[in-house]
Amino acid sequence: MHTILAVDDEAGVRQSYRVMFSDQYRVLLAENGREGLNLLEQRHADLILLDLTMPQLGGIAFLEELVRRGEDIPVIVVTGTNSVDMAVAAMKLGAREYVIKPFNVTEVLLTVERLLAESHQELELAALREADATGCALIGAAPVFIQALERARQAMEVDSTVLITGESGTGKDIVARAIHYGGKRAARTFVPLSCCAIPQNLVESELFGHEKGAFTGATEKRQGKMRAADGGTLFLDEIGEMPSEAQSKLLRVLQDGCFYPVGSAKAIETDVRFICATNRILPEAIAQGLFRQDLFYRINVVPIEMPPLRRRREDVPQLAAHFIAKHAPRVNAKAVEFAPDAMAALMAYPWPGNVRELENTVERILVCNRSRKIIARDCLDGMLAGAASELVTADTADFDGLPLDEAVSRLERRLIGRALERANGVQSRAAELLGTTRRILKYKMDQLGMAAATENEG
Fold this sequence. Notes:
The chain contains 18 helices and 14 strands. By secondary structure, it is α/β, with parallel strands linked by helices. The chain has 3 domains: 123 residues, Rossmann fold, CATH 3.40.50; 174 residues, P-loop containing nucleotide triphosphate hydrolases (Rossmann fold); 139 residues, Helicase, Ruva Protein, domain 3. The strands form 4 sheets. The protein has a 5-stranded parallel beta sheet with strand order 2-1-3-4-5, sandwiched between helices. Strands 7-8-11-6-12 form a 5-stranded parallel beta sheet. Strand 1, helix 1 and strand 2 form a beta-alpha-beta unit. Helix 2 runs parallel beside helix 3, helix 13 crosses helix 15 and helix 14 runs parallel beside helix 16.
């Protein structure tokens, strides 16, 4: 339900707004501009009905303060003053419409409905552009990856707190954005905050905001990420690096739905959906006294584990093709695909930096081989950090002339066969060597028509 803030010094007009809008919208009422600004500090508003002539901060001053704060809320000026100069001044400050009292109720209702619809469309377009700006789709068909995507799809349908875990480069931030833009808060703001990218002594100020003079250097009042995300989603990346004091305050927000800016004793209510991510193993951090156990329980409502790329090697060809299509035009490269032997080498590599490393490597290969239409195995020399794989070094002669699918299947059989040999036929041990699970290994063996190995642990 949308929220409308009506600011007018006439009690009768405010009561009229309550009667007009309360059936369809949440209605906030203020009798002057100062009271209206105070309400905006505590509550989110989707549209403002604003009188121009009021004591204690008139309409023009109110609009100027909105501009100073960077607020982008549709405003309808409703006033009894038929002044062209004031109308022009209001429009220059961002007001969308200008209505003269006494107004037609139906006309105002239709204007409010139209502006809310236009605002929603603008937010949707911005959301699509922001999602597309990540430049990386959620690509892959490996069972372990599909399982993570299914959990993310479930998270889109609810408003519960989400905890995304996984190594760096596995796409945790992309999944967080997908959950937000695929859910009911898609039209609201997605606010990211990296807990390891700001100094520890400023984390609380960045998160909750601060009052003027709250600490040395706080020369003016500042709105934090919590306030900016009101009504939308706050993405706390690398939450495992959050200082303990900030952890306790975040726990209070999750419990009570309100927070205190640094240096303020006044609680501010908030309506925020939290999505958290970390590359740390939080139970280990809890055991070391670095992370609060009660906070872990609060954020781990919908857990999503993003698998490393070495556990879904079968997705490398599709990802590599995507990155060629993405980067080749940008770097003026002619490449359209990898040769089978080159793809075999890419699949054999363990990718410690995961999908992010794969994308950077593909871009680097394209830059260094811009005239090549087919990227051959020799183009990879010196491009991969270390040996192709601990388990196998691809012999390029084994893949010459093969279609890509057959080359990939042959490499997968070789990887699995060598791992089973080293594990004396024990699938669970072979799965560990391959960086996957026994269930996924069994699935790949069945898919490749490989005979089952013994599970005699003795």
